[in-house]
Design a protein that fits this description.
Order of helices and strands: HEHEEEHEHEHHHEEEEEEHHEEEEEEE
Protein name: M24 family metallopeptidase
InterPro entries: Creatin/AminoP/Spt16_N (IPR029149), Creatinase/aminopeptidase-like (IPR036005), Creatinase_N (IPR000587), Pept_M24 (IPR000994), Peptidase_M24B (IPR050659)
Strand content: 15-25%
Number of helices: 9
Shape: elongated
Helix content: 25-40%
Strand order of the largest sheet: 4-3-2-1-5-6
Radius of gyration: 23 Å
Length: about 375
């Protein structure tokens, strides 16, 4: 992997050099990990001021959830008196005769920005912008392999839950059990806080589990994902508890399923982000559910659970091959509940079989 990280840093070097900066400081944790192989807590990456350096406030512990630093990188563990690695990086850039430094302004606080200027007042700071995030959109096959394993772990955890007794258990209990099962199957942890919604809570995006107990006839919606070697996936499913679904439940489920299928089929290289969103949204709008729809139909996944691209009505841009995204339409009826169906897929050309579905738990409306 060292060569991969070196290539990534080289691409970034070309970008900031073309913009007139002599060096770059990367501070956003996911971006640090993408370029350095690891992101120990508080670490930052300095590129271009002499050799590339990963500056850490504490010695890396080897925790697999933080990754493993690229062997080609110099790793500096700062003494406690050195304080903030961002400030130390500014001083290091200045000592290497850098006259300009590109920084991630969207990640730095005003206080840290001022602290950098206090130790390097003659260093010109420029905005690196979201350059690294843009590099991260298209994944290589090793990244996709990690996402594929994360999805397998997630499917296993959800499948085991579906085989257990659910009536009478609380949303909170079910969420905790799902997260434990993720770890049992090899995840570094959950990709995001697991959501479990029952009855009137079902179908809500990112519903925070409560002490409401599962009852017969409820819709049960779950949304979970595994974090495997830093890469995160997402799956969402909706079920009926303990009895045959009511007519309104079947009708609503079939509608959301059709919307999700339309968006999945629109995932082709060259498709506009907004067109993928429209493929799902127009069906839900036409059925009278325009109020309260999620702001987007899906989003990119990778080292973060919600990254570019955004599949939203006003999103600009077009899909490339090897871009993993979620497709997650949903409808929530206040006081009654609702349906969410969520998959993680990788955009592939038609010649390669079309979009690759990573999360494969059945989307049939099961009565559990």
């Amino acid at each position: 992997m060292s060569e991969v990280y070196a290539v990534r840093r080289g691409l970034l070097r070309d970008r900031y050099a073309a913009a007139g900066s002599a060096a770059a400081l990367v501070s956003r944790p996911a971006n640090v990990r993408y370029l350095a192989g690891a992101a120990p807590p508080g670490a930052v990456l300095l590129l271009g001021a002499g050799e590339d350096v990963l500056l850490c406030p504490h010695a890396p512990t080897g925790d697999p959830s933080h990754g493993r630093p690229d062997e080609q990188l110099r790793v500096d563990v700062l003494p406690e008196a050195a304080g903030d690695p961002v400030v130390a990086a500014a001083g290091l850039a200045l000592s290497a005769d850098a006259v300009s430094l590109a920084v991630e302004e969207h990640d730095l606080t005003v206080a840290r920005h001022r602290a950098m200027l206090s130790v390097a007042p003659h260093l010109r700071l420029a905005d690196l912008g979201h350059t690294v995030e843009q590099l991260r959109i298209v994944k290589d096959e090793e990244e996709i392999a990690c996402l594929r394993i994360a999805a397998e772990i997630t499917d296993q955890a959800l499948g085991e839950l579906l085989e257990s007794i659910l009536v009478g258990r609380t949303e909170r209990h079910l969420a905790l059990e799902l997260e434990r099962r993720l770890v049992d199957h090899g995840a570094d942890g959950p990709a995001f806080p697991t959501s479990v919604g029952t009855g009137p809570h079902s179908g809500r995006g990112r519903h925070r589990p409560s002490d409401r107990r599962v009852e017969e006839g409820d819709f049960l919606s779950v949304c979970l994902g595994a974090n495997y070697r830093g890469y995160r996936c997402e799956i969402g499913r909706t079920f009926v508890i303990g009895t045959s679904p009511a007519d309104w439940q079947i009708e609503l489920y079939d509608l959301v399923f059709a919307a999700q299928r339309g968006a999945r089929e629109a995932l082709v290289p060259g498709a506009a982000y907004r067109d993928v969103d429209r493929a799902a949204r127009h069906l839900l709008d036409s059925a009278g559910h325009s109020d309260g729809l999620p702001p987007s139909t899906g989003h990119g996944v990778g080292l973060e659970i919600d990254e570019d691209p955004q599949l939203a009505p006003r999103a600009m841009g077009k899909l490339d091959a090897c871009v993993p995204v979620t497709v997650e339409p949903g409808v929530h009826l206040p006081g009654r509940g609702g349906v969410r169906i969520d998959d993680t897929l990788v955009v592939r050309p038609e010649a390669d079989g079309g979009p690759e579905l990573l999360t494969i738990t059945t989307k049939e409306l099961l009565a559990l």
